[in-house]
Amino acid sequence: MKTIPITTETTVPIEKQAAIFELQHAGEFTDIENSAIVYVLRGWFGGLAGIPGAIQADDAWAFTTLFEHFTSLMPYPANLRTPTQVKILAALKIKAQASQDAVDAVLGAKNNEDERMITETDAFVADLIKTL
After folding, report:
1. Is pTM beyond 0.70 here?
2. In a domain, 106, yes or no
3. Block means of pLDDT (10 residues each) for the chain, length 132 residues?
4. 98 lies in a domain?
5. DSSP string, 41-107
6. What's the CA angle centered on 14, arms 10 and 16, to 5 degrees?
7. Quick one: which of 45, 102, 94, 26 has its CA closest to 66?
8. Do 104 and 38 contact (CB within 8 A), yes or no?
9. Number of domains comprising the chain
């Protein structure tokens, strides 16, 4: 069997793009996890404050984390995902959002702390990619 030499010129761009895809994918599921932790903490503090039903944040944690874990298993970039994977992701996103909305309703206020964290995370990932 003939060995084909591998040169730096052919492997570095491929390796770099693979690493960037991994970073972008990590950012994708970190965004989801940011939402999960915000809602579990809101519910936890709401429970400590004696707000009836605040423990519902456990649902937000469970369903948002399920969404995050499934997303972490998906190929990246997103166009490599199968139609079934995309359908499952959409259903998990809807369930996670519904559980987060339920926490907001119990606490009587919407929160955008997860959105702030997501914006910061996404900006950091984008800036890091520019340096590579």
Report:
1. yes
2. yes
3. 53 82 92 90 86 82 93 91 96 95 88 91 95 92
4. yes
5. HHHHHHHHTT-TTGGGHHHHHHHHHHHHHHHHHS-SSGGGS-HHHHHHHHHHHHHHHHHHHHHHHHH
6. 120
7. 94
8. no
9. 1
